[in-house]
Backbone:
């Protein structure tokens, strides 16, 4: 039986929490890093990670700094800008001594993973993107954007139900009480996570980040699979089709009923897509 381990690693003053699955037999397959989006956690990959292990992959899913079970550093130690996240993520990969990785990303803030891939293409084997803002026309949905509004953000980010409303609105389906209880934990256990979320949303610099990503993906030369929940209420599908048509290296698979957080309810469909592409 393959079990998911829970680990922490401290790099400088920053402490990362991550889930890890090791293959039954040691092999030379490229490790897979799975990155979650805003208001989600590494917990969202729990159904997919064991499948990776069964097929011989070393899987690692961190919680982003400032959220989940990772450290929530003070502003003086970490300023929560995309460039700081990119630097910290680069150091996280180096700290784990991973020479080459495949990346699976989903959601707002998971764009950091794509930025990493574009900056260090030699470190990437394969790139898999699930419902992530990658076209310059994408906008931050109000459900998340309100967290960065002065005064309003300070209030809504202290309400644990912001997590329920965001994840269920984005995924379009009911999430079990047990899972929601886990997703709420950062806000329930500390006001610090809410205050951190305000900073993250304020500093996302989404327009610039996604414009750079769109340009980069049009010229991307490594294998890239885009798995898209077609009913995403926050990200339009047409620009994704357009982007895929601009570069033969980009492959698109759609899941008709899935929405913004497809791994929440469609892990059984997504797992073989990921494994087949990695293989």
Residues:
């Amino acid at each position: 039986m393959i079990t998911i381990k829970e680990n922490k690693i401290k790099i400088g003053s920053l402490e990362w929490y991550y889930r890890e699955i090791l293959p039954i037999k040691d092999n030379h397959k490229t490790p897979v890093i799975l990155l979650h989006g805003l208001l989600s956690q590494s917990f969202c990959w729990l159904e997919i990670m064991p499948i990776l292990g069964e097929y011989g992959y070393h899987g690692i899913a961190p919680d982003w700094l400032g959220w989940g079970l990772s450290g929530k550093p003070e502003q003086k130690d970490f300023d929560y800008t995309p460039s700081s996240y990119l630097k910290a993520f680069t150091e996280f990969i180096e700290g784990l001594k991973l020479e080459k990785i495949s990346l699976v990303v989903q959601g707002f803030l998971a764009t950091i993973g794509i930025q990493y891939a574009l900056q260090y293409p030699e470190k990437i084997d394969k790139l898999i993107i699930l419902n992530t803002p990658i076209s310059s026309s994408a906008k931050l949905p109000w459900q998340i954007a309100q967290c960065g509004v002065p005064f309003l953000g300070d209030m809504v980010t202290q309400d644990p139900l912001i997590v329920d409303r965001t994840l269920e609105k984005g995924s379009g389906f009911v999430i079990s009480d047990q899972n929601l209880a886990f997703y709420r934990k950062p806000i329930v256990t500390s006001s610090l996570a809410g205050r951190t979320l305000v900073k993250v949303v304020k500093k996302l610099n989404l327009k610039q980040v996604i414009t750079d990503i769109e340009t980069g993906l049009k010229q991307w030369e490594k294998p890239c699979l885009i798995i898209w929940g077609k009913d995403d209420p926050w990200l339009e599908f047409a620009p994704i089709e357009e982007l895929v048509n601009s570069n033969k290296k980009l492959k698109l698979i759609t899941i008709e009923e899935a929405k913004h957080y497809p791994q929440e309810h469609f892990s059984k469909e997504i797992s073989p897509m990921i494994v087949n592409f990695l293989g």
The CA atoms of residues 232 and 260 lie 5 Å apart. The chain has a mean pLDDT of 96. The beta strands are 5-11, 14-21, 32-35, 59-62, 101-106, 124-130, 224-229, 250-255. The longest helix spans residues 82-95.
